[in-house]
Specification:
The complex is a heterotrimer. By secondary structure, chain A is an alpha/beta fold. Chain A has 2 domains: 178 residues, 3-Layer(aba) Sandwich (D-Maltodextrin-Binding Protein, domain 2), CATH 3.40.190; 211 residues, D-Maltodextrin-Binding Protein, domain 2, CATH 3.40.190.10. Chain A contains 19 helices and 11 strands. In chain A, strands 1, 2, 3, 6, 7, 8, 9, 10 and 11 form a 9-stranded mixed beta sheet that branches. A two-stranded antiparallel sheet of chain A has the order 4-5. Chain B is mainly α. Chain B folds into 2 domains: 83 residues; 185 residues, MetI-like (MetI-like fold, Orthogonal Bundle). The two termini of chain B are 37 Å apart. In chain B, 58% of the residues are buried. Chain C is mainly α. Chain C has a domain of 181 residues: MetI-like fold. In chain C, helix 4 packs across helix 9 and helix 12 runs antiparallel to helix 15. The longest helix of chain C is centred in the N-terminal third of the chain and has 30 residues. Chains in contact: A-B, A-C, B-C. Chains A and B meet through helix 1, strand 1, helix 2, strand 2 and helix 3 of A and helix 6 and helix 12 of B.
Amino acid sequence: MRTKRLPGLLFLLLAAITVTALVVGCGAPSVGAPTAEPAQPAEPTKEAEPAGQEPAAPTALDFVVWSYGIETIQDNIKNFQAANPLCQINLKDYSWLDYHDTMVGRFAAGDPPPLLYGSDHWLQEWAAANWLAPVDASFPQVTEYSGELAPYALQGMTYNGHVYGLSYYADTIDFVYNAEQLTQAGFDSPPETWQDVWDMSIALKEQGITEYPMILAFSQQEGASIEALISMIYARHQGEGALFDAANEPTFAQEGSAAFEAIQWLKEAYDAGILDPASLQTAEIDQVKSMQAGAHTFTIFPQYNMAELNRPESGEFAGKFKIALMPGDSHSTVGYVRFYAMTPQAAAMGDAALECAWSFLEYFGGKTDGSYTVVKRWAVENGLGFAQLPLFDDPAVEEAFGKWGDVAVISQQAELARSKEGLTPWFGAWDVFTRAEVHKAILGQQTTMDSLNNMVVKWNELAQQ
Amino acid sequence: MNQRIGRRIESVSLNLLALILIIFIVGPLVWVAVASIQGENELLRHPPRIIPHDPTLDNYDYVFTGKIPTAYEVKGQLRSRISQEARLIPAALKNSFIVATSVMIVNLVIGSIAAYTFAWQRFRGRTFLLNFILGSRLLPVMAVAIPYYVIIQTLGLLDTYISLILIYLALTLPFSIWFLSSYFSGIPKDFEDAAHIDGCNTFQALTRVVIPIALPGLVAAAAFAFMASYNEFLFARFLTQSIDSQTGPVIISSIAGNPDASYSLISVAITLGLIPPLILAIVLRRWLTEGLSTSITLR
Amino acid sequence: MAQHPGAARRHHSLRLGRKAYPYLSILPVLIVVALFAIYPIIHAVRMSFYKYLLTRPNDHPFVGLGNFIEVITSYYFKNSIQVTAIYTVAAVVGVVIYGLGVALLLNTSIKLAGPLKIVILLPWALPAVVSGLLWKWILNADFGILNGLLYALGLIDSYIPFLADPTLAKLSLIMAFIWKEGPLVAIFFLAGLQLIPDEYYEAAKIDGGSAWTIFRHVKVPLLRAVFLIVIVYETMTAILTFDTIYVLTGGGPADSTALISWFAYAEIFKGLNLGHGIALAIIIAAVTLVLILVYLRALKPEEATS
């Protein structure tokens, strides 16, 4: 009937598609993980020829990042391509909050990009799943950079003895205070211990300077909350083994351990109105904003936020925020690293692509003409920290960091920083599934020991899988 | 007399109720619009300023021209709450609009034809097919996200409008078919019989008689298809990779997830994102309450 | 029986067309739906019977019902089922009452019905991630506008951390759900009200019915089909609320807003345990199906639409 012509072509096309989908569905129960399955054979009829298939001159590589400073990245890519005309980089980005999950989906669906950002949280997870390629296997020269790196950063990029990337930025978790408010309360030096923090907080509260002197970004969605918590544990603990021993066996579930003390302190501080109850809903961005607004005196967060906190136009307390070494006997803290990584896809695309991948990694995370051009640009323009220790002596970096912080304290804290203990393929999952346990202890729904024990149970369960 | 007063009271109280609802509905949105013309520092006050002291269009200027608002400029530094992604908002909203409108149109056309069949035709396999269509939505989206990716990749459609349009059709069609078929079957049967007696075939009966009567239902289904597509996030973020196809929600959430996020800029993004649906709402409003009553007068 | 005998003398091809019409008319829909249903469902069901951990790429043994047993005995299952049940019941009841109320108001001739008709659509247009973000900001305990307003009006002495308290966080989430989903419910009820011929009201009024009896005995029965659809849709939406929670609370504090669907997501995308995640998803689908069947039974329209 004339009225029903429309489905004809559409039907044939979609029927073919359905069959294809069915065929895909009848394979082994695999999500097509590393079973290399390039996208070309399936669809000659579609208009899916955007770019890439003709290796006329340059080799095109996708580079996936989380959305931060996109224009700066594009500018860096432009410079890189000018220096390497045979390599073409296509930038793709996902938001930071979605980055891990989206990449997991892409990897699981069998569509890895050759180049991407990685993080120490997930290195082991991704490497164990064969999603990342060890850089030193193809380019042993990458290890030449190791000597200049802070140990925590190198550890964060190493799995099973292999180096998986070059650092994009690296930073420490720092204790920050509002110096003006502290002076107003009658203290002229920052706290050294958690008892100091307590006493000062009581004074701040009693004098009505800040209603809740301390805020933490402990929302259950905040990926960095585990790092803040571990920094409070490290600072109370001498040496290694604060959380896990060398065999990744938990050591923290006992009364009097640094972890016990840290969580117990938080619980008491919550009850005493020292810790802002809103901490349990706060994520990093709002944490920085409420510090700027002067609502709190103490906090803990990644160092790079100092540039924003002390930005001259940011409000009446701009320039008054200072870093103190993490309170505790050892003053140790967490150092973490985000890095440029490559996947087995780079090698699968051929030698030209692999060479481009290396040139890219080295341009972005290594040295060009003897200097860390891109790393330094992030540090100077955006205040991102770095793991390349020689950069601390770079005059441009010193000047930039001097604007919002005390370079001496920052580098001293960086030297005391350690990577997270327990970095294993299941660390990320353990973190997500145990955030609620810390909440329950702080809210008094269960004892601190109960929480710690539950965290061990979850750890062992994940480790056994 | 007494009745007049009763009417009066009823009218006043109903209007009052409507006013409360309007405040509840638009309150948050008005706040966003107000915030979008304020500087960040005003917003972080305790309590925040509800009426801006120093309104500025700088934030909008940045989104459209890339001119950095003076309040954010720090010598040589491009940091400070300027999420550069904010400049992608207009392009992303265009993508959203194209995708949502396409889904709305296709959904209405193929959806209403199918719904009409399910409502008034009897044929073998009807129950099975209807259950299949409705049941297809039972499995939570997180469980099918990875297979969806594989399908779209196999079709070579990653990072395209078509991928999103296809998926949103699959997500919205079951529900709009269910609603429309139930809606169509609520229309008194005499209308259709009259059409058949006049010599219309089934399809003509649908287009000439049923659709005009069912307009409010069709508008509701259209709004549903548009809104569901306009604001879908999980697949949009998963299947789009560049501004060629990234939609509004993807860009807004990436601005908001940026450590430099400023509430002013987020507000600009949200405010701009409300404009297309606002236009749609104004257009659709007329048809929402023009159903059976008008058709009856036609007869 | 839809074919009436008068057409008998038309020719053969037309008869065939008549027979084929139902299938042709649903074909496009069927293709799109099948494309995104058959493979994913087969894939999911198979996967649920295997131990499938992405961090163990070469080791996927068949485990039968192992995944189901593991998730049901997991530490979070009981709590998250409770949270899901409380949240879903409150959210669905709330949104249906709210949406129906708005629809009834829109169906009157009061002055503010016009403006209400325009603005009602707006919350619907906000992506759940964005509305979550918006509420998070409004409810913020340091610089939220709601706290600001309450404080300025003298109703509170100090800011309330709405999202940091297990009970208030749940309430906030339910309110955000109603705000965002209300428009859909209202529009669908409004469309349903439009189908009720004016004569019905007139008849009821002549019989001396009050507004309430008209509502109870004329509108509600005629809206049954809409009730059913809206309740089913909102139940599915509420059980699967993900974006809002992801942004607003992340499941916290202390898992007080962690729905079962959040754990399905977390098992897949955070824990990389596809077997667990999909087993949870299938449990959710089964529960949803049972609920739908219960609704169908309870709300079946009298004249049996099917």
